[in-house]
């Protein structure tokens, strides 16, 4: 259920916390396992993480459902996390989200037919002076315009 | 401008150890390792500096550090709160990107003061670039023998790790943050006990904001008085203001405390398209909104903003011009708190959703005549009744928007459309 | 904690510095509303219902989390406090269904009670209420999570008391949902307590669902008798039937918790298999008859087969360990008045020469403060749940608990487990005793000289010697160990040497009541196994079901079925086998239907009344025995109620335990089988309880063995052993099979 490579990464996190506090690594362990499983967490993978960290399954499930960055439904290979909070809104994020939806032919929360992209409206990502902005993977894209969005999205493979 | 956290901003590779050390970085920490400082001297310097918590609460940092039972037996922890997520706030992200070593040194100094040999920097999980910078800086510091156990053969030990968030605004609340480091849901703890006595893993813990920690090395290097003199009475030093919204040059500005708001506005390039200023949220989405008039008369320091009827908070200045529909803005903010409530305590779990739904109803043209009173009633019932400050944070905008812009809400309810946007 | 004075609503009260405000108000009888607070659970302070105003503190504070300090002035009823409490109440109700009349909690709902006082009549919330999908968490607990107010008492109960976090809060904000993660539902043996702690109708009793309103029922205090704790319970009845059982409070016994076994067993009372009328067998045909006819038939049969020809020594009395102390006493008195010394309740023992004799000398409450416990041969969590709970508390307080078991069980406490084969236990303990004696520089008895102390036994000896307050717990899995008596004696000797305590949980139900009532043969009589081999002419049976109760089930059935043997059988349930061997069957009252007493591990004699009447013609066994004695013209049976029997019993002298010789020689190389009934099949009432039977614990039917044993027995995965599906696992010791079965032992051993 958890690959050796993932276990190694999880072990590195466990090492940061005091002895017996391995459940501190649960947030990262879930991310690592999610990344290996099409960006999604299943019941079984949550249980596997819990077992690996010697914690109750429900405790891992609490974490997996509390934080925003875990997915429990199918998502695209790339998730466009579009901020729609105040600073971005003041700078036209709603129109840009509408543009993106039209361009991709999906609504926020949906995945493109080819499974490549899903769009998610998110709360403040902490880049308000670069509003409007979105995140794809590790990357922030700021001061977005329709043209800029088109370029970025067209470049996704 | 740019005298403390951002002092190296214009330098090449400003985040590198080399750049940091070239401007005197780690000189205090090296003195500590050599045994040239006592904890009391450091606390004293901090008290003189007038540094107050930059995360939003504004509690004097020197005083906070003095509360820690540093002579108590057993493990103690020091934690940095880099879980920036308050709408309008993006300063810590830049500190981590451009001056990570100042955070490390600030934490190291704190660890020595409070005899906390282990530290964690809780960085919000989306901040991948800042995380990489901070991790890179940690590697440099370890490699340079600045971190670890018995550094340089001394009695001084400090191990520092990052812990990453996974998407929950509430983890910016310090006890929720501790729960999160412990691998749990980010649910704030009730207090007492306070983290200084029962904190991370049940041990005494001090938690400070990124900017607070990043300010400490320069305070120690130049003296508390130097820092105090940068600001005004009761608000020592400089402050990073994230200025966003309808302005020409949105950015993070490190300026002296006490700067008139009008100057900050000019610094940020003035109103975009020459539009008229309508409203300002001076300290992040949780702080009360101000009218243009009140804002223009305000100075940017704790007392100045307080006098204007709001709070300095995290220094997140959101500028709105006269094209802004205040009903729409409040609805968006209400949605934020509704979305981010941890759900643990009743007034916040049930009340934030109620507030959002009533506002959404108004936005949908289905508002009722008594909805304004209802909103005021609900926010009043949340206010002061919750475990943590998120309840108050959700309530305060409602009260201030309705107080300052009531006619827009009345108009929307009556005409089923925005007074501003039509 | 220092004594201080605080002022609550203008009244000066005494308190201890640092205790919570709610502890003070509860003690003083000052009513502060609350939902998440529970005195036995950690503080969560999340419902916010107990907000009060404290002078000098700007915000209202929760009483459950506020430590009191000297001079504190608290207002629980002023405008500020009331406003906060009403605000919280309003928030709680906006998403809570207001259909109390159809809710199972209606009438005993904490939310409803508080709403009457603090709620307002008109809700200003006009949005749709939250609806939460139901989740099936097993046959015992009904969920209706739309009613959940997120107090998290059930979650905290799971992680703090049950020791297995099964419920949790997933999602966040308004979507916070209390639910289990496991798809197979809740598995804790204490799960029903979540029903008791749930303040609303989110978690209710599944077997009780839609039956009745709480106010329609009478609540009678009683004692649960399925184990050695004798938990205090309330049986709630309606029109002569037990409809529900909830826990009672008794700090010295069960605190405020009860096991699922004690909570749900009442369901069996109304099973269709209940015996409802006396029956006699005439010419091989069963006939329902009046009581006087049946009793007359029984007396005549006994006279004919044994009494008339002075053959009382060919009469045997056997009783189930679930009988009341008074029933044991009356039955032994009856038999002994007839001149019969053959009586026994120890039906599940292979070799009664090796019967365990071990005193328990530590009370339940004291178990919490041991610093070291050694559990030998017990799956304590399922076999004696409340005793396990006390040890778990000790462990949480820092005690070290070790288990020497043939199988690694699902412990719910931190335990250092060692798998020990049954053939090795006596030697291991002898090694421990030797090591203890050596460390104390005490001269070794001869039999220990040739024993070598293993590393493990030396370590255990050190731990026992280092402990200030240790206990050795001896469990049911040892009952049929070939060296059981020696093991018990070694436990006694070790405990004495380390000045620790012993706890004998090798029997259950009211076995201690049987001992107290002298329901054991003297040297003049035969024990249960001897009776099976002897030339018997008649038996008197008290709620015995040999295919489940006897270790030697086949021999027992054979002995009872002999043609010239007259069997008078008192039973609470119909049983095909009883019908085959018995000559007269007398319907007796089951638990809840008779008065009497139970002797628990504390040696508390806890009396109870009949909660309901036995159905139709069934009568309390003590009454049947009394009338039988009268009809047999025996003196001294003029009892009008069971408490007269109790007081007579209290004046009888009691035997003390004796020393057994220790024999370590009889080491056996054959595979040993330890046969345990599933925790929900240990007595006849439980075996008729559908909900418990359907639960995960009740479904257990497995013969566990390791690979080597399976090979030795020529078994492979998918096979059955003694009729039980096998499970090959390395958690079992060599040379043994651990069976946990929900079926009869017959066909097996």
Fold blueprint:
The complex is a heterotrimer of chains A (157), B (422) and C (749).
Chain A: H1 4-14, H2 26-36, H3 43-52, H4 57-66, E1 78-83, H5 86-90, H6 93-104, E2 117-122, E3 134-136, E4 139-141, H7 146-154
Parallel strand pairs in A: 1-2
Antiparallel strand pairs in A: 1-3, 3-4
Helix pairs in contact in A: 1-2, 2-3, 3-4
Chain B: H1 17-22, H2 27-33, H3 39-49, H4 61-67, E1 77-82, H5 91-98, H6 100-113, E2 118-123, H7 128-143, E3 159-164, H8 174-181, E4 205-209, H9 210-222, H10 224-230, E5 238-245, E6 251-256, E7 259-260, H11 261-267, E8 277-281, E9 290-291, H12 292-296, E10 299-300, H13 302-308, E11 316-321, H14 326-340, H15 346-363, H16 371-382, H17 390-415
Parallel strand pairs in B: 1-2, 1-4, 2-3, 5-11
Antiparallel strand pairs in B: 5-6, 7-10, 8-9, 8-11
Helix pairs in contact in B: 3-4, 3-10, 5-6, 5-7, 6-9, 9-10, 14-15, 14-17, 15-16, 15-17, 16-17
Chain C: E1 3-8, E2 11-16, H1 21-28, E3 51-54, E4 61-62, E5 73-75, H2 79-94, H3 110-118, E6 141-143, H4 153-162, E7 167-170, E8 177-180, H5 193-197, E9 203-205, E10 218-223, E11 232-238, E12 241-247, H6 260-264, E13 279-282, E14 285-288, H7 291-307, E15 315-319, H8 325-337, E16 343-344, H9 364-367, E17 372-376, H10 380-383, H11 385-396, E18 400-405, E19 416-419, H12 425-439, H13 455-466, E20 470-475, H14 484-497, E21 501-505, H15 511-516, H16 528-533, E22 538-542, H17 546-549, H18 553-561, E23 566-571, H19 576-581, E24 584-587, E25 596-599, E26 605-608, H20 621-631, H21 642-650, E27 672-677, H22 690-694, E28 702-705, H23 707-712, E29 720-721, E30 724-728, E31 736-741
Parallel strand pairs in C: 1-5, 15-16, 15-22, 17-18, 17-20, 18-19, 20-21, 22-23, 23-24, 27-31, 28-30
Antiparallel strand pairs in C: 1-2, 3-4, 3-5, 6-9, 7-8, 10-11, 11-12, 13-14, 13-24, 25-26, 28-31, 29-30
3D structure, described in words:
The complex is a heterotrimer of chains A (157), B (422) and C (749). Chain A has 157 residues and is of the alpha+beta class. Chain A has helices spanning 4-14, 26-36, 43-52, 57-66, 86-90, 93-104, 146-154; strands spanning 78-83, 117-122, 134-136, 139-141. Chain A has 2 domains: 4-66; 78-154, 3-Layer(aba) Sandwich (Glutaredoxin). Helix content of chain A is 43%, strand content 11%. A 4-stranded mixed β-sheet of chain A has the order 2-1-3-4, covered by helices on one side. In chain A, helix 1 (4-14) packs antiparallel against helix 2, helix 2 packs across helix 3 (43-52) and helix 3 packs across helix 4 (57-66). Chain A is elongated. Chain B has helices at residues 17-22, 27-33, 39-49, 61-67, 91-98, 100-113, 128-143, 174-181, 210-222, 224-230, 261-267, 292-296, 302-308, 326-340, 346-363, 371-382, 390-415, and strands at 77-82, 118-123, 159-164, 205-209, 238-245, 251-256, 259-260, 277-281, 290-291, 299-300, 316-321. In chain B, the strands form 3 sheets. A 5-stranded mixed β-sheet of chain B has the order 6-5-11-8-9, sandwiched between helices. With 422 residues, chain B is an alpha/beta fold. With 749 residues, chain C is an alpha/beta fold. Chain C contains 23 helices and 31 strands. The radius of gyration of chain C is 28 Å and the shape is globular. The termini of chain C are far apart. Classes of the chains: A alpha+beta (157), B alpha/beta (422), C alpha/beta (749). Chains A and B meet through helix 2, helix 4 and helix 5 of A and strand 3, strand 5, strand 11 and helix 14 of B.
């Amino acid at each position: 259920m958890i690959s050796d490579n993932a276990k190694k990464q999880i072990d590195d996190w466990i090492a940061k916390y005091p002895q017996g506090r391995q459940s501190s690594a649960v947030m990262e362990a879930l991310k690592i396992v999610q990344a290996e499983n099409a960006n999604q967490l299943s019941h079984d993978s949550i249980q596997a993480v819990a077992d690996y960290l010697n914690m109750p399954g429900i405790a891992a499930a609490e974490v997996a459902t509390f934080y925003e960055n875990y997915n429990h439904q199918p998502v695209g290979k790339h998730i466009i996390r579009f901020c729609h909070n105040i600073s971005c809104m003041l700078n036209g994020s709603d129109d840009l989200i509408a543009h993106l939806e039209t361009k991709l032919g999906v609504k926020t929360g949906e995945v493109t037919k080819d499974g490549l992209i899903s769009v998610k409206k998110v709360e403040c990502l902490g880049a308000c002076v670069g509003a409007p902005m979105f995140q794809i993977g590790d990357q922030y894209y700021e001061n977005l315009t329709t043209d800029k969005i088109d370029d970025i999205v067209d470049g996704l493979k | 401008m740019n005298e403390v956290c951002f002092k190296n901003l214009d330098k090449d590779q400003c985040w590198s150890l080399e750049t940091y050390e070239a401007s005197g970085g780690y000189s205090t920490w090296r003195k500590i390792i050599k045994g040239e400082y006592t904890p009391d001297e450091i606390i004293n310097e901090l008290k003189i500096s007038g540094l107050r918590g930059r995360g939003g609460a504004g509690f004097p940092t020197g005083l906070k550090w003095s509360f820690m039972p540093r002579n108590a037996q057993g493990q103690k922890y020091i934690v940095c709160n880099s879980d920036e997520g308050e709408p309008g706030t993006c300063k810590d992200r830049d500190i981590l990107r451009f001056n990570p070593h100042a955070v490390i040194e600030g934490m190291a100094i704190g660890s020595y003061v409070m005899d906390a040999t282990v530290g964690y920097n809780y960085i919000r999980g989306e901040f991948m670039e800042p995380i990489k910078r901070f991790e890179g800086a940690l590697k440099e510091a370890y490699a340079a023998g600045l971190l670890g156990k018995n550094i340089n053969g001394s009695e001084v030990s400090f191990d520092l790790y990052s812990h990453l968030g996974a998407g929950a605004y509430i983890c910016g609340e310090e006890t929720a943050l501790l729960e999160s480091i412990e691998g749990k849901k980010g649910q704030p703890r009730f207090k007492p006990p306070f983290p200084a006595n029962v904190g991370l893993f049940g041990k005494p813990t001090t938690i400070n904001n990124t900017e607070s920690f990043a300010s400490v090395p320069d305070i120690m290097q130049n003296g508390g008085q130097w820092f105090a003199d940068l600001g005004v009475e009761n608000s020592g030093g400089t402050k990073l203001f994230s200025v966003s919204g309808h302005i020409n040059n949105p950015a993070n500005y490190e300026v002296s405390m006490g700067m008139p708001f009008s100057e900050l506005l000019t610094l940020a390039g003035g109103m975009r398209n020459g539009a008229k200023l309508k409203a300002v949220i001076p300290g992040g989405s949780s702080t009360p909104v101000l009218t243009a008039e009140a804002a223009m008369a305000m100075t940017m320091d704790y007392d100045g903003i307080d006098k204007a009827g709001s709070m300095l908070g995290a220094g997140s200045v959101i500028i709105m011009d006269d094209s802004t529909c205040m009903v729409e803005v409040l609805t968006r903010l209400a949605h934020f708190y509704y979305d981010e409530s941890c759900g643990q305590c009743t007034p916040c779990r049930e009340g934030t959703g109620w507030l959002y739904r009533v506002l959404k109803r108004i936005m949908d043209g289905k508002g009722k005549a008594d909805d304004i009173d209802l909103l005021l009633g609900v926010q009043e019932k949340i206010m002061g009744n919750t475990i943590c400050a998120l309840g108050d944070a959700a309530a305060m905008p409602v009260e201030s928007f309705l107080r300052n812009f009531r006619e827009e809400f009345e108009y929307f309810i009556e005409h089923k459309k925005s007074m501003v946007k039509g | 904690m220092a004594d201080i004075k605080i002022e609550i609503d203008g009244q000066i009260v005494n308190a201890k510095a640092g205790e919570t405000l709610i502890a003070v108000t509860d003690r003083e009888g000052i009513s502060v509303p609350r939902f998440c607070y529970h005195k036995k659970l950690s503080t969560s302070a999340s419902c916010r219902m107990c907000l009060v105003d404290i002078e000098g503190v700007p915000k209202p504070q929760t009483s459950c989390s506020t430590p009191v300090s000297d001079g504190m002035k608290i207002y629980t009823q002023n405008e500020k406090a009331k406003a906060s409490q009403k605000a919280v109440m309003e928030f709680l109700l906006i998403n809570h269904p207001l259909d109390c009349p159809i809710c199972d909690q209606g009438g005993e709902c904490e939310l409803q009670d508080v709403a009457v006082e603090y709620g307002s009549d008109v809700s200003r919330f006009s949005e749709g209420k939250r609806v939460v999908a139901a989740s099936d968490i097993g046959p015992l607990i009904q969920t209706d999570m739309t009613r959940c107010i997120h107090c998290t008492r059930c979650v905290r109960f799971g992680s703090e008391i049950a020791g297995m976090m099964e419920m949790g809060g997933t999602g966040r904000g308004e979507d916070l949902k209390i639910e289990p993660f496991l798809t197979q539902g809740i598995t804790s043996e204490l799960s029903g307590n979540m029903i008791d702690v749930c303040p609303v109708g989110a978690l209710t009793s599944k077997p009780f669902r839609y039956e009745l309103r709480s106010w329609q029922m009478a609540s009678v205090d009683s004692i649960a008798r399925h184990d050695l704790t004798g938990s205090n319970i309330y049986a709630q009845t309606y029109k002569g039937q037990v409809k529900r059982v909830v826990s009672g409070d008794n700090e010295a016994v069960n605190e405020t918790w009860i096991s699922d076994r004690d909570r749900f067993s009442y369901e069996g009372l109304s099973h269709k298999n209940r015996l409802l009328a006396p029956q006699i067998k005439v010419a091989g045909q069963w006939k329902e008859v009046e009581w006087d006819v049946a009793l007359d038939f029984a007396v005549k049969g006994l006279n004919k087969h044994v009494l008339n020809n002075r053959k009382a020594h060919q009469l045997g009395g056997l009783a189930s360990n679930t009988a009341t102390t008074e029933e044991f006493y009356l039955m032994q008195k009856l038999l002994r008045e007839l001149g019969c010394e053959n009586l026994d309740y120890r039906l599940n023992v292979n070799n009664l020469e090796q019967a365990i004799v071990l005193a328990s000398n530590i009370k339940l409450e004291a178990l919490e403060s041991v610093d070291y416990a050694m559990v030998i041969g017990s799956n304590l969590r399922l076999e004696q749940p409340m005793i396990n709970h006390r040890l778990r508390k000790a462990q949480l307080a820092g005690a070290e608990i070790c288990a020497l078991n043939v199988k690694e069980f699902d412990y719910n406490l931190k335990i250092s487990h060692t798998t020990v084969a049954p053939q090795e236990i006596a030697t291991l303990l002898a090694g421990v005793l030797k090591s203890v004696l050596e460390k104390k520089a005490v001269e070794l008895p001869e039999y220990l000289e040739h024993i070598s102390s293993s590393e493990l036994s030396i370590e255990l000896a050190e731990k026992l010697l280092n402990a200030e307050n240790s206990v050795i717990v001896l469990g049911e899995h040892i009952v049929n160990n070939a060296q059981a008596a020696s093991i018990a004696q070694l436990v006694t000797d070790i405990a004495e040497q380390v000045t620790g305590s012993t706890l004998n949980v090798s029997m259950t139900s009211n076995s201690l009541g049987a001992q107290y009532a002298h329901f054991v043969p003297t040297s003049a009589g035969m024990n249960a196994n001897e009776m099976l081999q002897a030339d018997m002419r008649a038996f008197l049976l008290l709620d015995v079901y040999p295919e489940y109760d006897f270790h030697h089930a086949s021999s027992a059935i054979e002995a009872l079925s002999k043609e010239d043997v007259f069997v008078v059988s008192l039973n609470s349930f119909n049983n095909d086998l009883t019908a085959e061997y018995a000559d007269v069957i007398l319907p007796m009252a089951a638990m809840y239907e008779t008065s009497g007493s139970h002797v628990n591990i504390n040696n508390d004699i806890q009396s109870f009344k009949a909660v309901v009447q036995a159905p139709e013609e069934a009568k309390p066994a003590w009454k049947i025995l009394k009338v039988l004695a009268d009809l047999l013209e025996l003196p001294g049976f003029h009892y009008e109620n069971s408490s007269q029997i109790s007081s007579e019993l209290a004046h009888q002298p009691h035997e003390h335990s004796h020393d057994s010789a220790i024999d370590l020689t009889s080491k056996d190389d054959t595979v040993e089988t330890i046969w345990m009934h599933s925790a929900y099949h240990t007595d006849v009432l439980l075996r008729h309880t559908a909900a418990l039977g359907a639960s995960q614990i009740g479904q257990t039917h497995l013969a566990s063995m390791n690979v080597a044993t399976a090979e030795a027995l020529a078994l492979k995965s998918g096979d059955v052993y003694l009729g039980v599906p096998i499970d090959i696992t390395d958690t079992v010791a060599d040379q043994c099979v651990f069976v946990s079965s929900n079926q009869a032992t017959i066909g097996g051993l």
